[in-house]
Design brief:
heterodimer, A: 344 residues, mainly alpha, ABC transporter involved in vitamin B12 uptake, BtuC, two-stranded antiparallel ribbon, disordered N terminus, B: 376 residues, 2% strand, disordered C terminus
């Protein structure tokens, strides 16, 4: 672990990757302000701000979960289908009655936690790559959804729809809930043993195991938390749409977008390095970009092109720094390395 | 190998690998016990099961048409293999397929004279996309997952912008013949579809490539990038070629798909995950360094056979995804175990050995001596 400690002395002088994320966010906001102003609109109007914050809430929930999973060295491609599944299941249980809200929420949390547990066990016990395990889970759920739900299903009572509609000032309640979850996730990562184990296992599974960490536990916890957060995102979408939709998740492309947001937030895709704060910055960059592009009426198809370019370029800016500062995963300093260092 | 044995004299004293001792049958049996070989058995089992469920399928004419229909996805899987075995991903494949399909639809039109120039343009564009993906991965050091995801978004955006999201243009029949044409009046099998011939050519070329220094270095780079770098190869040029091969194969798959599906921006949707699934089903390790190129193609056939079997059994088509999901998880879980078993000697043998070579400090994960590519 000395390799991680060594650069810390320089870190105080240098910008951390989270710092860069927020600089990029600031740059995006400034650029957005100029562009919207050039279009005769105000970027800081209440409507604009709340639209941006609303966008951040759903992707935020999912990206927080995805951060945990990526930190532990896995991936979760099943998120869009967990979102869809929880939206239809909750819609079905609620069926428009206020009394059914609590059972529906509990059912969704239990169901998504179960899915996450299966993902985690397959990844940690069966040693299946996270990409394949969750892709398989995605296909399984997608088949179930396609077979049993044609079109929208169930409905949300008015009391539940308020969660999606209420705002405190310009800030939607859903965003506050999302930030609360983010805070909890940060506490888990920084203050609990499991949180530290998540970093340890993501950094180097084998070293963590040899150090006495039960590697399956953090992997399962990360996957369970991720799926539960996706379940919450599904509930939020149900509150907004008032009906459960079996395609809402895949339409949003949340699997790849959440991974992009996490990586944009400075988390290493290989795991072991990154944080929730950076991810929130990444989500905010997407939100600002989307809102600005729709305000200045960029052709909706070109928005995708811009989004793709921004993801690659922004990651390129700090990917180089991260990789330079951190030894490659599973790379152990050997005698050969030392000899090469001497030769230089 | 000489460098290996000089580094670790203990290792050179080991008996040669089992695969090198037995004859042809022994080698075949050893190959079949690896995940890359087992996929061929799986294809055989699925084929028999499908024929039992639907005797009509056993007819050579029907079978050969099935092979022709599956060729595009097998070609895409071969392309994806080059990228995956080098330890990367190519998520832009589906977007490349739909871009090429739309390009063909818009540029060729009704003019047979334009078929050749436009196809050249498509191949050049495909290579260019591969170069960009490779540059992003190796020079900008962005994970290939993100680079190709960005490329996917960008290409899909351009395709939708050009077509407006609707079917556009229909290329001349001469061009569509490449995908759906056949050589008529062949004795036993009745017809030979062109896509099958193209697939055969590509498969032979891929096997040849993987036996060249290029293929060897690619596997080395996927297995241990640090070691490959220290060994002196240029990873930039190496991985770029892998990405170029991947987008070129997506281009070819696109050309073939025009024949079957016509021109629509949704053609090729889901191809990236289908190709990755096929490759993974073929026993190729995600993360690189293990697997055979032909197993990737066989994985594609296994997947399509599975769907045919489900249809023959009268299972609702909406359950296809679910079955596919279960199958890939199970296959990869088994394959992971098998590669591990093949990679290191059994526990007790290792323990005995550890007493002799623990001084080198490499007893945690001894690198496998010899090749695991199997097609040598």
């Amino acid at each position: 672990m000395t390799a991680i400690d060594a650069p810390r002395t320089r870190q105080s002088r240098r910008l951390t990757s989270t710092g860069i994320v927020y600089l990029v966010l600031l740059f995006t906001i400034i650029l957005g302000t100029i562009l919207t102003a050039a279009h005769g609109r105000s970027f800081f109007s209440t409507g604009n701000i709340s639209a941006i914050l609303t966008f951040t809430s759903v992707l935020g929930f999912i990206a927080i979960g995805q951060t945990l999973v990526i930190l532990v060295g896995s991936l979760d491609l099943s998120v869009p289908f967990v979102v869809s599944l929880s939206s239809v299941v909750a819609g079905g249980v609620m069926a428009g009655q206020s009394g059914q809200v609590a059972p529906a929420v509990l059912a969704v949390i239990a169901l998504s936690a179960g899915i996450g547990l299966v993902n985690g066990l397959v990844v940690s016990r069966l040693r299946v790559h996270g990409f394949v395990a969750t892709l398989g889970m995605a296909l399984i759920i997608s088949g179930y959804l396609a077979t049993n739900y044609q079109g929208s299903h169930g409905s949300a009572p008015r009391s539940f729809r308020l969660v999606g509609a209420t705002q405190i000032g310009p800030i939607p309640v859903s965003t506050l809930i999302m930030l609360g979850c983010a805070f909890l996730a940060i506490v888990v990562l920084r203050r609990t043993r499991t949180g530290h184990h998540i970093y340890a296992v993501g950094g180097n599974n084998e070293v963590a195991r040899l150090s006495g960490v039960h590697t399956a536990v953090p992997v399962c916890v990360a996957h369970v938390l991720c799926s539960v957060l996706c379940g919450l995102a599904g509930l939020l979408l149900l509150a907004r749409l008032s009906v459960g939709s079996p395609t809402i998740g895949s339409q949003g492309g949340y699997d790849l977008m959440s991974i992009a947001a996490v990586v944009l937030g400075g988390t290493l895709l290989a795991g072991g390095k990154g944080n929730i704060t950076g991810t929130l910055g990444g989500v905010a960059i997407f939100a600002v970009m989307d809102q600005v592009m729709s305000v200045i009426e960029v052709e909706s198809f070109l928005q995708d092109v811009v989004r793709g370019l921004v993801i690659v370029l922004a990651v390129a800016v700090y990917a180089r720094r991260d990789i330079e500062r951190r030894p490659a995963p599973f790379e152990r300093p050997t005698g050969l390395d030392a000899a090469l260092q001497e030769a230089r | 190998m000489t460098s290996l044995s000089t580094l670790d004299p203990e290792r050179s004293a080991r008996p040669p690998l089992r695969a090198h001792q037995s004859g042809l049958m022994g080698r075949a049996a050893a190959a079949a016990s690896t995940p890359g070989g087992a996929i061929f058995l799986l294809v055989g089992v699925l084929l028999v099961a499908t024929i039992v469920a639907n005797p009509n399928f056993g007819d050579p004419g029907v079978l050969i048409r099935f092979l022709g229909r599956t060729a595009p996805i097998a070609i895409a899987a071969i392309g994806q293999y080059f990228v995956i075995v080098a330890g990367e991903f190519d998520l832009s494949m589906a977007a490349v397929v739909s871009m090429q399909v739309v390009l063909a639809g818009n540029l060729i039109g009704d003019d047979p004279g334009r078929v050749i120039p436009v196809m050249c343009l498509m191949l050049v564009l495909g290579a260019l996309i591969g170069v960009l993906n490779g540059l992003g991965t190796t020079v900008l050091l962005v994970p290939s997952f993100i680079v190709t995801l960005g490329m996917m978004l960008a290409l899909n955006g351009i395709v939708d912008y050009v077509t407006g999201g609707a079917a556009a243009g229909n290329p001349v029949d001469e061009f569509r013949e490449i995908g759906r044409g056949t050589i008529e009046d062949v004795p036993v099998v009745d017809v030979i579809p062109y896509p099958l011939i193209i697939l055969t050519v590509i498969a032979v070329a891929a096997v040849w490539l993987m036996r060249r220094p290029f293929g060897r270095s690619l596997i080395a780079a996927g297995d241990n990038p640090a070691a490959a770098r220290v060994a002196g190869g240029s990873l930039v040029w190496l991985k770029m070629r892998a990405f170029v091969l991947s987008s070129l194969s997506a281009t070819v798959a696109g050309i073939l798909l025009v024949g079957y599906a016509g021109v629509h921006p949704s053609v090729g949707q889901g191809y990236e995950f289908a190709a990755i699934t096929a490759v993974v089903l073929g026993g190729v390790l995600l993360g690189g360094g293990r697997g055979w190129v032909l197993s990737a193609a066989a994985g594609a056939f296994a997947l399509e056979l599975l769907f045919t079997l489900l249809t023959a059994l009268g299972i609702e088509s909406t359950w296809r995804d679910t079955v596919q999901g279960v199958i890939i998880i199970v296959a990869v879980a088994l394959a992971g175990r098998a590669w591990q078993a093949g990679r290191r000697p059994s526990r007790s043998a290792r323990r005995a050995e550890a007493s002799t070579d623990s001084s080198t400090g490499s007893s945690i994960q001894p690198p496998s001596p010899g090749t695991t590519t199997g097609d040598s």
